[in-house]
Amino acid sequence: MKRTFKPVSVLVMLALTAIAVGAGLWWHQRSADADNPYAHLGGDFTLTSANGPVSLSDFQGQVVMLYFGFTSCPDVCPTDLARMSAVMSGLTTAEAVQVAGVFVTVDPERDTPERASEYARFFSPSIIGLSGTPQEIEAVARQYYVIYNRIEDAESAMGYTIDHTATTYLIDARGVIRNRLQHDASVDEVRRAVRNLIPG
Ligand code: NI
Fold first, then answer.
1. Which of 174, 177, 184, 188 could share a disulfide with 42, CB 3.0–4.6 Å?
2. pLDDT tens digits for 151-180?
3. Mean pLDDT per 10-residue run, the chain (200 residues)?
């Protein structure tokens, strides 16, 4: 009788081993993610620049400063993009080639890819401006937990304005979000955070 049990117990052992290995991998993955509070956010996307499609993964190997806004924004976006430009110009040449800026419009109705790109380039030639269809923009904003609301303003010549999250995401050379900086962060603070992510 004992012999008939043997194959069964081997199977049980194999099953238990598989479970243990699986749990170990899961735990390992979980603790790696636990080090990075932003691991559940972000990811790759493809939108359109004046020169055609651009994906976040095109910047693999570079640190990316990613910002969402719109070109008719009266002050918040210009301030944050000017800061992005100042961060860039304070880097050494060797550092600068490892850093890119990406501006994504949350106003795709007015901001064509041409307009978004031209706007970004006005601040720095190292900032790429992107747009897309309203659905594409919505999907990327959801991926990055960016909130934007259209506010009708009949009084204004623009017709409407957009309230939006003013967060600069820092994405490492592997495409993973590693830091989020708010509107009140200084140029030095952002540059220090960027430098921390440049592969040594
Ligand atoms: Ni803005």
1. 177
2. 998 787 788 999 999 999 999 999 999 999
3. 56 66 57 72 96 97 98 94 98 97 97 98 97 98 95 84 95 96 97 94
The C-alpha atoms of residue 58 and residue 36 are separated, in whole angstroms, by 23
Q: How far, in Å, is the centroid of ligand 1 from the Cα of 123?
A: 14
**Phi-psi category of residue 42: left, alpha or beta, with phi > 0 → left and psi -120 to 50 → alpha:** left
Residues, CB within 5 angstroms of ligand 1 (ion): 69, 73, 76-77
Question: What is the Å distance from ligand 1's center to 105 Cα?
Answer: 9
Residues 6+ apart with CB under 8 A from 56: 43, 44, 45, 46, 64, 66, 102, 171, 175
Nearest to 75 by CA among 186, 183, 191: 183
Q: Using alpha carbons only, what angle is made at residue 48 by residues 159 and 150, rounded to the nearest 5 degrees?
A: 25
Using a 10 angstrom Cβ sphere, with 0-12 exposed, 13-18 middle and 19 or more buried, the burial of residue 189 is: middle
Q: Estimate to the nearest angstrom the gap between the alpha carbon of 183 and the chain centroid.
A: 16
